Amino acid sequence: MKGLINWEALQKYQKLPFANMDEAAQAKQWGSFAGMYDGMAKLEKEFTKKQVGQMLLSAEDSVIDIGCGPGRLSVPVAQKVKSVTALDVSEAMLAKCMENARREGVHNITPMRANWLAEDAVETVGKYDIAIASRSVGFADLVKINRIARKYVFILGWANAPSLREIQLDFLEGIGQEKVPHDPDARMFGYNMMFNMVYDMGANPNIVVVEDGFERDYVSREQAYADLRFVGEIRPEFEEQYRSNVDRYLIPQPDGGFKLLRKTKTFVLWWRPDEVSA
């Protein structure tokens, strides 16, 4: 089905991180971020449950999480369904995912190391009741992800709000890391493109924007400084700057402790693959 606007062509202006690398290079690059992504996912844990709460899941569903990372979604989704296949190109990410599954007492996740960008990915991956792509390479081709789902496809991403990467680099501002500049086109090239692409594919997409963020309670500033070091390397000469960066986001509490709270927003977009005519 052809729409009035070629949304697919417009989407090409958005760059997928590391997509132009070969598989080995992608795996190495994503693997280098595994510890940081895992730390950030733990800060999102309670908010992630709100995102999962928007998904139409049943106890009999088989699910694939494309670009699962450290299992931010795979683990809570697995607690609601029959089985989850956690797909990632990085062994390091998959190791974090399975570590987090064991910690939560989840035993129905199967790791799959595969490159979703490969030409034979659909044949390699197979079919599932539910296909999920959250902030991942699953965004690259909505027709492709539609081909592996029987009941629903769920796409999750930042809703014109601070992203994980932006928040991470805020903690490293002034200590050798470049701050992510504000993108004036962020809203223009937001979830509206994916919504319209799905519509033009013939489906009737649904979307909800969830208020979420990153949070943790600390008994002291020192505990916060120690806990958040997963964000990146902090050399001794930048310690004072790092602490100042963290202080900006610590809210004093009545009990003498502190709350870290960085608010953001996530869109959850979903559709039924049997409606797609493309």
TrEMBL record:
The keyword Magnesium does not apply. Keywords: Methyltransferase, Transferase. Transmembrane segments: none annotated. InterPro entries: Methyltransf_25, SAM-dependent_MTases_sf. Residues 63-139 form the Methyltransferase domain. GO terms for molecular function: methyltransferase activity. One of its GO terms (biological process) is methylation. This is RumA: 23S rRNA (Uracil-5-)-methyltransferase RumA. SUPFAM superfamilies: S-adenosyl-L-methionine-dependent methyltransferases (SSF53335).
